[in-house]
Amino acid sequence: MKKIVVLTGAGMSVESGLSTFRDADGLWENYPVSRVATHEGWLADPEYVNAFYNMLRTKYTDVKPNQGHLLVAKLEEQYDVTVVTQNVDNLHEVAGSSKVIHLHGELMKGCSSRDVDNPRYHVQLGGDKLTIEPGEKAGDGSLLRPFIVFFGEAVPNISVAADAVSNADILIVIGTSLVVYPAAGLLHYARPGVPVYLIDPNPSVGASFGNVTHIQKGGSEGMKELTALLMK
């Protein structure tokens, strides 16, 4: 079975109604990055940081996967598919994708503030438990914090993602500008000659990378076109 790796960015979830962080009306416009997405911000005011991510979880409860997410999951009928996402939402999992690598963390999880990447201290959030309360502790006794990779922190899954890309027979890139590193560097792990399908309505620097077919559409429309091509 051929292996497909799908690399997704913020544009993948826009059709589901999620704000991007970087656009003109994005979340960073209203909340200073330094306060909500850095280790220094966490140390200075953990309650403020948790309140920000609590708010996001509450906003995201009614969000549903869009057709693009569903079509990515449908590829598993004929391919071995790994999704590598820069997004912190869980829409790929809800849509049915079985192998998802999150590069920037997962909004619907909390973790130890002392041992962030230790799964023993991860707490699943959702349903009746959407918030991390002030002073709430992880299993190791440290403060519970969002399982989000803050700016300046290592991206622990980048090597796992690079390994997946290096074994891919087909690469699909959806809704990412390919300017955010280290994720943008993943294309360089692809074997020579591997076809790359870039789905993005905007012109992209990624279109100049090697063997790229640029489908200049949004995630859902682009995946419709690509699914028709890949699933005979």
Tell me what the structure shows.
The structure is a single chain. 27% of the residues lie in helices and 19% in strands. The chain has 232 residues and is of the alpha/beta class. Strands 3-2-1-7-8-9 form a 6-stranded parallel β-sheet, with helices on both faces. It has a 3-stranded antiparallel β-sheet with strand order 5-4-6, covered by helices on one side. The protein is globular, with a radius of gyration of 18 Å.
Short description:
The protein is of the alpha/beta class and 232 residues long.
E-strand count: 9
Number of contiguous helices: 8
SSE order, as H and E? EHHHHHEHEEEEHEEEH
Structural class: alpha/beta
Indicate the mean pLDDT.
89
Low-confidence stretches: 22-26
Molecular shape: globular
Main beta sheet: 6 strands, parallel
The helical percent reads 25-40%
Spatially, the strands of the biggest sheet line up as 3-2-1-7-8-9
In what range is the share of β-strand residues?
15-25%
End-to-end gap: 14 Å
> What is the alpha-carbon Rg in Å?
18 Å
